Amino acid sequence: MDVRKLDRTAVLESVRLLEQAAPEDWEAPTPCADWNLRELVAHMAGQHRGFAAAAAGGGADLSVWRPVELGDDPVRTYRAAADEALDAFAQPAVLTSEFALPEISTTITFPAPVAIGFHFLDHVVHGWDVARAIGLDPRPDDDVAEAALVFALRVPDDERRLGPGAQFRPALTPARGARTLDLALAALGRTPDWTAPAARESSAPKTSPQH
Prior knowledge:
Blueprint: H1 3-18, H2 37-55, H3 74-89, E1 98-99, E2 110-111, H4 112-133, E3 136-137, H5 142-152, H6 180-187, E4 206-207
Parallel strand pairs: 3-4
Antiparallel strand pairs: 1-2
Helix pairs in contact: 1-3, 1-4, 2-3, 2-4, 4-5, 5-6
């Protein structure tokens, strides 16, 4: 499993999805109940910058993980933050380093492949959040969906999912015959058929082209 390649695919797909957002979409609700699309993307950009700092040895500083002010061109700001993470992960020696990830633990560090796996899973899921917020039904390539499921099933499903600020909610029972991505989403407490409240009486979501 080439986690850097998978991560790059997931991150670039999140950029591609955001490029399809209309001006009115930035205030739209998302599957992350506490965030509209702008707030979600500010969080995602902050995660990119935090992981980039972690790859360079500076991840222990919580300030580098703050949500990013997106300004008047949120897609451009997000793309720049995504590029920071991808460039940091592409450095030749990065896979032998340890990442400080204080939002997960302040007492241990994580081997780079594990940390990049966290980043990959986060942006597969948040890419889906973005797609659903703007009315798309994302269809990632099989290798991305299968890797996301592997990582999702490794996330502990315990009391830590119940507290405020939990990254994921308790796992849900997937529908029979669910596709691979939906299995990963359900394992992380997402409802795979989520639609925005205002759209629930409208037609089915558009399918996002595969890449």
